[in-house]
Amino acid sequence: MEATGKLTNIQLELLKLFQYQLPDKQLTEIKNILARYFAQTATDEMDKLWDENGWNNDTMKEWASEHLRKSDT
Q1: Which of 23, 26, 46, 50 could covalently link to 55 via disulfide, CB atoms 3.0 to 4.6 Å apart?
Q2: pTM passes above 0.85
């Protein structure tokens, strides 16, 4: 992401939500909630790609062997 000097929509929204000082415990909990949200979003997108492309465990084995062959060069 390129720095443009403008805040993103999520940055603006978070600034509105967190205008008050939070205890460290709450801040950690919120960070964990956000991390889980983005991890789940990435997982959902990968699941979608797997379904759309018909990938399976054999695909993973092929990818792994391709990586190993490329590493040998």
Answers
A1: 50
A2: no
